[in-house]
């Protein structure tokens, strides 16, 4: 089982579109859109949100994300009305980035508290943090991206998930930009495209294993058709 997600939006199309994006990165996570009014108009529907929470709960709890202020109110009211209000929680996080981060965390088997924390952290990236793999002791390898979309949504999620079980700090460098390879959002921010040459650095007990794993993913085009 995994933590479920409910996306509360004033727009049904916005909630459905974001659900589609997040599902590409977290295929095993139940993500339920709850956008718009029953008549298809702009707004939030309390009954729709309650029903979405019930659908999303597979036993490990639910995290709700919302787009605007009144959607937060609707989400909180829905949680309070549940027979077990402790089964769900509303995240204070950016709608798009928070959803992506939460979905990837849930896909990795994170607890509800950790999924909530991942969503919240997506709203406050520490851009001043030093690179986690700086130093002469870091192992490194250069790779050329051959898959069609480079390090964008799904490939970035595949990479981050693959590294989640490996004990090593890993970063990906493109030009003068460096990103934590465990962060989908950071990887996507590089804007790495097909044909780009990236450098991967790793440090830690399983640094070599981490570099081998990244190299294999690049070689296999992250599972995309060749």
UniProtKB/TrEMBL annotation:
Boundaries of each PTS EIIA type-4 domain copy? 2-127
What keywords were assigned to this record?
Answer: Transferase
Query: For this protein, what is the EC number?
Result: 2.7.1.121
Q: Which InterPro entries match?
A: DhaM (IPR039643), DhaM_N (IPR012844), HPr-like (IPR000032), HPr-like_sf (IPR035895), PTS_EIIA_man-typ (IPR004701), PTS_EIIA_man-typ_sf (IPR036662), PTS_HPr_His_P_site (IPR001020)
| Catalytic activity from the UniProt record | dihydroxyacetone + phosphoenolpyruvate = dihydroxyacetone phosphate + pyruvate
One GO-annotated biological process of the protein: glycerol catabolic process
Q: Per the database record, which ranges form the HPr domain?
A: 138-225
Under CDD domains, the record lists: PTS-HPr_like (cd00367)
PROSITE patterns the UniProt entry points to? PTS_EIIA_TYPE_4, PTS_HPR_DOM, PTS_HPR_HIS
Q: Which Pfam families match?
A: EIIA-man, PTS-HPr
Domain of life from the UniProt record: Bacteria
Gene Ontology cellular-component terms for this entry are: membrane
Q: Which GO terms describe its molecular function?
A: phosphoenolpyruvate-glycerone phosphotransferase activity
Quaternary structure annotation from Swiss-Prot or TrEMBL = Homodimer. The dihydroxyacetone kinase complex is composed of a homodimer of DhaM, a homodimer of DhaK and the subunit DhaL.
PANTHER family for the chain: PEP-DEPENDENT DIHYDROXYACETONE KINASE, PHOSPHORYL DONOR SUBUNIT DHAM
Q: What does this protein do?
A: General (non sugar-specific) component of the phosphoenolpyruvate-dependent sugar phosphotransferase system (sugar PTS). This major carbohydrate active-transport system catalyzes the phosphorylation of incoming sugar substrates concomitantly with their translocation across the cell membrane. The phosphoryl group from phosphoenolpyruvate (PEP) is transferred to the phosphoryl carrier protein HPr by enzyme I. Phospho-HPr then transfers it to the PTS EIIA domain. Component of the dihydroxyacetone kinase complex, which is responsible for the phosphoenolpyruvate (PEP)-dependent phosphorylation of dihydroxyacetone. DhaM serves as the phosphoryl donor. Is phosphorylated by phosphoenolpyruvate in an EI- and HPr-dependent reaction, and a phosphorelay system on histidine residues finally leads to phosphoryl transfer to DhaL and dihydroxyacetone.
Q: What NCBIfam families does this protein map onto?
A: dha_pts (TIGR02364), PTS_HPr_family (TIGR01003)
Q: What protein name is recorded for this chain? A: Phosphocarrier protein HPr
Q: What species was this sequence derived from?
A: Amycolatopsis pithecellobii
């Amino acid at each position: 089982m995994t933590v479920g997600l409910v996306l509360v939006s004033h727009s049904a199309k916005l909630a459905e579109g974001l659900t589609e994006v997040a599902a590409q990165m977290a295929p095993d996570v139940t993500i339920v859109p709850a956008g718009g009014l029953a008549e298809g108009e702009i707004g939030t529907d309390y009954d729709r949100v309650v029903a979405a929470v019930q659908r999303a709960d597979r036993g490990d709890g639910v995290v709700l994300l919302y787009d605007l202020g009144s959607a937060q109110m609707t989400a909180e009211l829905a949680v309070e009305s549940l027979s077990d209000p402790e089964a769900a929680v509303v995240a204070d996080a950016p709608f798009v980035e928070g959803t992506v981060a939460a979905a990837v965390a849930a896909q990795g088997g994170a607890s509800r508290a950790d999924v909530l924390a991942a969503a919240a952290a997506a709203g406050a990236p520490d851009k001043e943090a030093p690179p986690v793999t700086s130093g002469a002791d870091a192992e490194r390898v250069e790779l050329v991206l051959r898959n069609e979309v480079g390090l964008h949504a799904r490939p970035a999620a595949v990479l981050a998930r693959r590294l989640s079980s490996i004990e090593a700090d890993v970063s990906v460098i493109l030009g003068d930009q460096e990103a934590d390879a465990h962060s989908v959002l950071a990887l996507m921010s590089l804007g790495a495209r097909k044909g780009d040459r990236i450098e991967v650095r790793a440090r830690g007990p399983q640094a070599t294993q981490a570099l081998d794993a990244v190299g294999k993913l690049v070689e296999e085009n992250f599972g995309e058709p060749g």
